[in-house]
Amino acid sequence: MAQRAQRELFHARQNRPEGHEARWCLTLFPTEAYAQDADMSLTDFEEFVYEACFLNSDDPAARWKELGARQQFYVDWLRDKQQVHIVGPDTDLRLSIAGRIFRNSDGKRNFPSGEFFTGPIEDSANGHIRYAIPSNVNGRSVQDIRLRFEAGRVVEATAAQGQAFLDQMLELDSGARYLGEFAIGNNFGIQRPTRNILFDEKIGGTVHLALGNSYPETGGKNVSALHWDMICDLRAAGGGGEVYVDDTLVLKDGTLVLQPD
To answer: I need a surface site. Which of 152, 208, 214, 248 has the fewest CB within 10 A?
Structure first.
């Protein structure tokens, strides 16, 4: 009920930065509770956060600028592309990005960041996908999510843990069963999941797709009180996998094989 009630406030806040009316940056302070979720001691979790944010580097700002420049190559290359095909363990999903805009997330809003993302065509997702990386959402732990899409809509959904919560979120509103985001994680300072989406969706070599609300800046049109990023591990340690864009191999087994000349 609270999530539905805040939907309009969320949309208003979401649209303000594009009109240059507001600047914001979301981050996280290491606490015992976050460390417990990640199965780490507080000291180890602090070091994990520092590495994820490049704060142990001699010049953290230079590292973020370098990441931003590298990601801009992919944002530019993806302009005017049409189709994405994700293949991996229990995963074979196609979706359209025709006419959509990719954005470069390089630490100016989410911190840490390290991803490039867009909003897929709302009725284009077809196939199935497995999200083996668990997540905590609103205090609920959900693990091993498997979704099947037809014409953009989730028509089958299972979870090894948290099935009742998954079902509840899918019924939140009419937009909750459609994708609002497709993104590739590119922060290789993050090597392991922590059950915290702020970090896990940035893991280098993974992809994530969010159910629910789109970002208008990408051209996405889906509207929902939900925005749930689910992470698909395509790294070799997670079983491997590939991402093709218009039949060009972009990501294989956690490595971006498409590189600048």
So the answer is: 248
Domain extent at residue 199: 2-256
Q: Please, which residues have CB within 8 angstroms of residue 170's CB and are 6 or more apart in sequence?
A: 154, 157, 176, 177, 211
Q: Phi and psi of 105, rounded to 5°? A: -100, 105
Kindly state whether residue 261 falls inside one of the protein's structural domains.
Answer: no
Buried b (16+ CB within 10 A) or exposed e, 62-71: ebbeebbebb
Is the residue at 151 inside a domain?
yes
Distance separating alpha carbons of residues 94 and 125, to the nearest angstrom: 6
pTM of the predicted model as reported, rounded to 2 decimal places: 0.93
Beta strand 227-233 pairing with 179-185: unpaired
Q: Which residues pair with 115 in a beta bridge?
A: 105, 185
> How many domains in the chain?
1
Handedness of CA 146, 169, 235, 42 (dihedral sign): negative
46 part of a folded domain: yes
Amino acid symbol at 230: M
Q: What is the pLDDT of residues 242-253, one digit of tens each?
A: 999 999 999 999
pLDDT tens across 203-248, in order?
999 999 999 999 999 999 999 999 999 999 999 988 999 999 999 9
If we measure between CA atoms, which residue out of 189, 89, 195 comes closest to residue 133? 195
φ and ψ at residue 82, rounded to 5 degrees: -115, -45
At 123-155, the pLDDT tens digits run 999 999 999 999 889 889 999 999 999 999 999
